[in-house]
Design brief:
The structure is a single chain. With 186 residues, this protein is mostly helical. It has one domain. Helices cover 83% and strands 0% of the residues. It contains six helices and no strands. Helix 3 packs antiparallel against helix 6. It is globular, with a radius of gyration of 17 Å. The chain starts with a helix and ends with a helix. One of its GO terms (cellular component) is plasma membrane. It is found in: Cell membrane. The chain crosses the membrane at residues 12-34, 46-67, 73-94, 106-129, 135-156, 163-184. Keywords: Cell membrane, Ion transport, Manganese, Membrane, Transmembrane, Transmembrane helix, Transport.
Amino acid sequence: MDTVAVMKSLVALFMMAIALGMDAFSVGMGMGMISLRLRQIFKIGLTIGVFHVIMPLAGMFIGVILSAHFGKVALFAGGVLLILLGAQMIFFSFQKEAGPIVQPIGLGLIIFAVSVSLDSFSVGLSLGIYGARVWATVVMFGAVSMVMTWLGLLLGRKFQKLFGSYSEVLGGCILFAFGIKLLLSM
């Protein structure tokens, strides 16, 4: 493969990585509106980056057999998870003494990471069919989504300071709306 073809393929993968990272950015912005420390933001971005490596890698290896069936299931599961996360953020923002059920730590972080990386699993299934460069693809997906998550979380954190107590409601609405968008795109 000549240099021009390699560059074109890397640019195409980068554009796809940005498209996949946009959901991590959007959801990160919503999640960033709850009080998070910089250490938590770092861990969240790193975890989402890792899941954006694991999920398309798994999708590429599963490939042709499941691509027709899993694409819609992944979108449905991701949409439902985001709706639930958004709804619980909205609900618990009105209760001062109780915190949200799902926080972006431990199992909550895994749920959060899975919900925003399910679309990369579907893309991985498709790329597996076309024989894309596996490692270049997954490293680019992981790196771009990690950076975009950090940007979203930091921007959400700024909005949280600006909007105060209303920021959790706004963040929950963003997650909820993004979940509905995923469900409607099926």
